[in-house]
């Protein structure tokens, strides 16, 4: 059955939920978003550092940072005294400066996550199901959102700046792989879930492909040195992808750029197949069920899998081979620096798939190609929900407006 048997007999308004919109000033101007982006990237920066990086005058930077501090978006750190001159005062993001809601709509579960300004998850609620329906997802949101914001003070609730929705753009496709009724999944074709959730909550609401959103989470919240150009793969029920070019999330004409599932790849048997047919978790679940192993827990427990070693190894080999072919294609067309692998899976499985993909790539014919590095992602199972929350954050506070998605 779909998520939830009960539906709301009367739709809740944004006042019922407890949100009245942000009380902060509107869209930050370019220089303010530039400063906030730099502080997010570096963790903490002094005014002199920002002036040096941006080329803005010290006076301009001082005015900007004072405004951001007054708005509660930046906090002062402890002064750092040097040998000469005035002490340097690092500024860092105020975690309570703004909050964002990410809703991940998947083929097996829906998550609602509240994230603070530093990217820390404050609360997450999840519901698993056999397949999603639009009405049930809206009902889940109406019930989960009040619980998520209950921990916030009234003033902090005024700093909830928007909602991002991450979902596959064609939920009605490939339903045979999850055993969902085609007629019920077809309800997604013409349903405007963004507008309905926006009307329910009274908040700006944005919609983005789920794998693209996961890629955005790696870009905005990921740790370590990030390549300027990378192709990102996320393992969910089906494999999905995202693309970063010149440090910016590339959405494409329809917002579905790097939707890697249909990508043709070579198989170990010398045939041509689609990446989705070898590198999706649904294929692992099918193999487990065929061997008499329960697979339902895969959608509930991304931190720990109990799978027969042979079944898991065979699936990882097929997935790694598929990713290697995809990496070869992307490297040929775009000269990307790296391929990043992440997903709804234990960290040790991700690490092994990454290792096997690297090995499989170097077993292919690489003449004339500078092969991309094969790297692990740093976010993990929550990447889609965090990426959804990153959409309103990027729209309002970061310099990269390409990450905004389609908004209210």
Structure description:
- The protein is an alpha/beta fold and 408 residues long.
- The protein has three domains: 30-93, Orthogonal Bundle (Arc Repressor Mutant, subunit A), CATH 1.10.10; 99-215 and 384-407, ATPase, nucleotide binding domain (Nucleotidyltransferase, domain 5), CATH 3.30.420; 225-377, ATPase, nucleotide binding domain (Nucleotidyltransferase, domain 5, 2-Layer Sandwich), CATH 3.30.420.40.
- Helix content is 37%, strand content 18%.
- It contains 13 helices and 15 strands.
- The chain has helices at residues 14-17, 30-42, 47-54, 58-70, 134-149, 154-157, 182-185, 193-201, 210-221, 281-290, 309-334, 347-362, 383-397; strands spanning 74-76, 91-93, 99-105, 109-116, 121-128, 160-167, 205-209, 230-235, 239-245, 248-249, 264-266, 272-274, 338-343, 373-376, 406-407.
- The strands form four sheets. A six-stranded mixed sheet has the order 5-4-3-6-7-15, with helices on both faces. Strands 10-9-8-13-14 form a five-stranded mixed sheet. Strands 1-2 form a two-stranded antiparallel ribbon.
- A hairpin with a 4-residue loop joins strand 4 and strand 5 (121-128).
- Helix 3 (47-54) crosses helix 4 (58-70) and helix 9 packs across helix 13.
- Residues 1-13, 20-27 and 401-407 have low confidence and may be disordered.
